[in-house]
Automatic annotation (TrEMBL), chains A, B:
Xref: CDD domains: cupin_XRE_C, HTH_XRE
Keywords for this protein: DNA-binding, Transcription, Transcription regulation
GO molecular function: DNA binding; DNA-binding transcription factor activity
Pfam family, one: HTH_3
PROSITE patterns registered for this protein in UniProt: HTH_CROC1
Protein name from the UniProt record: Helix-turn-helix domain-containing protein
Annotated signal sequence range: none
Keyword Repeat: no
GO CC terms of this entry: cytosol
Length: 184, 184
DNA sequence: TCTATTTGTATGCTATAATGTATAAAAAGG
DNA sequence: CCTTTTTATACATTATAGCATACAAATAGA
């Protein structure tokens, strides 16, 4: 029995218990036999993707809910705790706030750019996407040679797996929130 | 043949072509037979979770990469386009920037709170989690009766499926970035 | 153009997923 | 406590996943 089967078994059983459903009920909801639901929960069988799909749909949960592992409560990150990363002679500063987590697939930064400060990025991992909101100042973001002029309060999302740049075109500090999503 | 099989077929074939791998090579990397890889790509078979796990690991991609559907490039959201939601007699304003997307599982807002403005939340959907960073002013966030005093540049993440409140304890506008994650 | 190599597909066989049914065990109700 | 109902598991059968092998088709190189 593979580890992934155990994970699936635990998650399915946990969901079923939490919702207070019998094997019979899950069977009705999903269109998968009661005996098969039981086999899966005991880790006695490695179900096909079609079967899992039916179960996920029947229980109205996602695949990842069935194949991932759980985590804990509130956590504060003070600015003083953050190890800042500088580029462009200190004119571009990145504050890594919430690191990447495998089961969430995103990480969060805040960014500060001094006037005329800039950063060129060759692009991140495949399929990555950035979500940026301007909280102070202004910025010109270039993606695939397209310039996007953003003012205070504006936002942009773009595919981050290609060359892109950030440039503070104003005369005061620019501050951005940055959420980077990775599909894998 | 189920729809999920077609999706899987398309994604696997796309990855293989992109990486310029032969069926033989994917077979070596994953430990799944060449014939089976071919069957999966043609949608001729509904593989078990163990088989998909092996393929995902062999190709170093996630499950979601194999079972999800692709999207387009950069998109700008100007502040003027955002429909603001107000609470507490206008002292608490929410700007929905990037709406929830099923395949990413998070949504992004910015929030503005006037001095003494506050909001009580009974909690969102099960397992939801909030990631907040202060970009201006200060805020007291309460989660499970615990108060967290955050200053400019500080951040917090907390389980959002329980009662929580936001209160501007300062004497000027507070601005927050808010990323809400939902497991399903 | 021809030959050798690589690649994808077809086929038959084995292993196992998935089911329906029977039954033992657990839970609910009087 | 006893009886009925519900629930989970065992078992036999059917369908199909997964594999090894052969071969046709496509590609690469001389």
């Amino acid at each position: 029995m593979e580890e992934i089967q155990k994970i699936l078994a635990r998650n399915l059983k946990a969901i079923r218990e939490k919702e207070k459903l019998s094997l019979e009920k899950v069977s009705e909801l999903s269109g998968v036999s009661k005996a098969m639901i039981g086999q899966i929960e005991r880790g006695d069988s490695s179900p096909t993707i079609t079967t899992i799909w039916k179960i996920a749909n029947g229980l109205k949960v996602s695949f990842t809910t069935l194949i991932n592992v759980p985590q804990p409560d509130a956590k504060v990150v003070l600015r003083s705790e953050i190890q800042v990363l500088s580029e462009d002679n200190g004119r571009y500063k990145v504050f890594p706030i919430f690191p990447f987590q495998e089961n969430k697939r995103f990480e969060i930064y805040s960014v500060e750019i001094e006037p005329e400060g800039n950063l060129n990025s060759v692009g991140h991992r495949d399929g990555g996407e950035e979500f940026i909101t301007v909280f102070d100042g202004e910025v010109i973001i270039t993606v695939n040679d397209c310039n996007y002029n953003l003012k205070n309060g504006d936002s942009i999302r773009f595919k981050a797996d290609r060359p892109h740049t950030y440039y503070n075109s104003g005369d005061r500090l620019t501050r951005l929130s940055m959420t980077i999503y990775y599909p894998d």
